[in-house]
Amino acid sequence: MNTKKELEKKDWHYYVYEENNTIRLSVPIPKPAPGFDVFYILNEYEKEKYLEIGIKALEERIEDMNVTFMTTK
Fold first, then answer.
1. pLDDT tens digits, 7-50
2. With pLDDT > 70 as the criterion, what percentage of the chain qualifies?
3. Region for residue 24 given its phi and psi (left: phi exceeds 0; alpha: psi -120 to 50; beta: otherwise)
4. Which stretches of 1-73 are DSSP H helices?
5. How much is the pTM?
6. What mean pLDDT value characterizes the chain?
7. β-pair partners for 25
8. How far apart are CA 9 and CA 66, in angstroms?
9. Is 41 exposed, middle or buried (0-12, 13-18, 19+ CB in 10 A)?
């Protein structure tokens, strides 16, 4: 059975989901309108760090997702 569980969120900044023993990070990108989400599946190291210390472990990844999208557009 496919179960998706929201682990945490900060509206319009990030959303973290667990599904089938994987953790997915979703970062909303507001432009171009109406916007969309960029998804990233955490690797095992990132997953362990996230489960250990929380969202602080993903701050650099979130920033990278925002910057990378804006510079490749």
1. 999 999 999 999 999 999 999 988 777 788 999 999 999 999 99
2. 93
3. beta
4. 44-53, 59-72
5. 0.84
6. 90
7. 16, 40
8. 16
9. exposed
Rounded to whole angstroms, the Cα distance separating 17 from 5 reads: 6
Secondary structure of residue 65 in the 3-state scheme: helix
Q: What's the chain's Rg over C-alpha atoms?
A: 13
The type of residue at 37 is D
Cα three-residue angle 57-60-64, rounded to 5 degrees: 140
**Structure tokens given for 72:** 């490749």
Q: Which amino acid is at 6?
A: E
In angstroms, the CA 24 to CA 42 distance is 6
